[in-house]
Amino acid sequence: MEGARVRTLPAAIAPVLVGTGAALQVGSGSLIRALLAGGVALAFQIGVNFANDYSDGIRGTDDVRTGPPRLTGGGMASPKTVKYAAFLSFAVGALLGLILIAVSGTWWLLAAGAVAIVAAWFYTGGKYPYGYMGLGELFVFIFFGLFATLGTTWTQAGQLPASSWLGAIGVGLIACALLMINNIRDIPTDSQVGKKTLAVRMGDRIARLTFVAMLVIPMILAIIIALDAPWGLLSLILLPVIALQARRVLGGAQGRELIIVLRDTGLIELGYGITLLIGLAI
Fold first, then answer.
1. CB-count burial class (<10 Å; 0-12, 13-18, 19+) for 205
2. 4, 69, 147, 208: which has the fewest C-beta neighbours closer than 10 Å?
């Protein structure tokens, strides 16, 4: 459970909820396909987490941490075990993905799934991990925002309404906020080991402002969605929680204090997915 990083799992569930909501809005929607898409997203997210644990651990990046201990770096499991856990997670996701593709007839998504697995491994794996170059948020936005949301809608509705695109951008930005706050917490230690995340490159203050923007913009997108689906305004009930996180982060929360923000940001993303699902379905 520690290695799966439960706090990050809303990043997998939320886009499936939004994508399903967009499918329901246009008169389509399938519980079976939604569950399959959710299984794919969860398996890939867990696989990414194990892969990161393995790669960061063998590089020594996790030798000094302010957050929860990692399996590999903390000596809680052997590197081989963690690597196999990542491969098993990817295999489960691939199997569920094949079933979803077969049911929906969207065989072109095979290529998208293959690219997603490769991108997940080389986020922190390989000789030149792009997560160490400040490109992690771009990966998250593309795969846990656009791909997951639009793919979910397409496999259920065979079309991509505007609400799916807007929701994909919104949920993708909140997923980026999850990674950003995690990396803000780790700026001191990442700087020491040469891990140049986007937060490290931006610097502490700009990274904190970017985090807040990543939570505010999805609320603006929800208002735009509400022009066509008025119940999309349900997402605005998250504003007080967002305001609280903004106050904490801009107020200079450090270290373990940011773990609370990470948890709450995950809940914000889950809330965004649930409220948009309801709003679009109505």
1. exposed
2. 69
**How far is residue 190 CA from its own chain's centroid?**
20
Q: What is the pTM of this model?
A: 0.91
Q: How far apart are CA 146 and CA 26, in angstroms?
A: 19
pLDDT at 124: 80
Contact (CB, 8 A) for 186 and 65: yes
**Pair of tokens at residue 180:** 């950003």
Render 39-60 in DSSP notation, one character per residue. Answer: HHHHHHHHHHHHHHHHHHHHHT
Q: 123 and 51 in contact (C-beta within 8 Å)?
A: yes
Q: Is 84 left (phi over 0), alpha (psi -120 to 50) or beta?
A: alpha
Largest CA distance in the chain: 53
Run of H or E including 114: helix 109-121
Question: Which stretches of the chain drop beneath a pLDDT of 50?
Answer: none
Residues 15, 116: contact at Cβ < 8 Å? no
CA atoms within 13 A on the CB side of 83: 9
Q: Residues with Cβ < 8 Å from 95, sequence gap 6 or more?
A: none
Report the helix count and the strand count for the chain, using DSSP H and E.
12, 0
Rounded Cα gap, residues 277 and 251, in angstroms: 33
Structure-block tokens of residue 57: 């651990």
CA distances from 271 to 142, 209, 244, 279 (A): 20, 22, 15, 12
Query: Among 269, 247, 248, which Cα is nearest to 257's?
Result: 248
pLDDT (tens digit, 9 = 90+) per residue, 34-44? 999 999 999 99
